[in-house]
Every structure is written in C-alpha cells, then in structure tokens.
Amino acid sequence: MSSGHPNIRVFISHGGQLSTIESVHCGVPMIVIPVYGDQPVNAGAVAAAGMALRLDYHTLTKKRLLERLHVVLNNTEG
C-alpha cells in the first residue's frame, strides 16, 4: 500500500501493525476488519483515536461495509 498517495481516501484493512502504522502516519482514515492476533487491539486503538471505523468479520455484510464507506468518504459521524 502507498497510503501517502493523494488519491487514497480510505484504507480497508485487517488491522495488522505495519499497515495500521502506515495509514496513521499518512493520515488516511481506515475501515478495519480484524480477524486474529494483534489486529483486534490495533483496530480498537485506531477506532478510539477517531482514525478508523471497525467492522466485525463474523457479521460483515455488503450493506455494513457500504455504510461505513459512505461515512468515511462523506466525512460524517459513524
């Protein structure tokens, strides 16, 4: 990922440490769908900081993902 590219408006990730750090460093908002390991902790941290919206992998639907994308891309409250 090259999150420093000016055309990137949102990053959808599992919340691994390196991609999370890169996204935070570049100021790119995230939608995080953690699965295991450090991912839930990372997702919780960036969500608490207001830099990400979190989705649950086990209840993920197309509708929920599109709703979160709408929130991030239109800079509205989630």
UniProtKB/TrEMBL annotation:
Domain of life according to the entry: Eukaryota
Ranges in coiled-coil conformation: none
Xref: InterPro entries: UDP-glycosyltransferase, UDP_glucos_trans
SUPFAM superfamilies xref list: UDP-Glycosyltransferase/glycogen phosphorylase
Keywords assigned: Glycosyltransferase, Transferase
A GO molecular-function descriptor: UDP-glycosyltransferase activity
Family: Belongs to the UDP-glycosyltransferase family.
PANTHER family on file: EG:EG0003.4 PROTEIN-RELATED, IP04436P-RELATED
Protein name according to UniProt: Uncharacterized protein
Organism, as annotated: Timema cristinae (Walking stick)
Upper taxonomic lineage: Eukaryota, Metazoa, Ecdysozoa, Arthropoda, Hexapoda
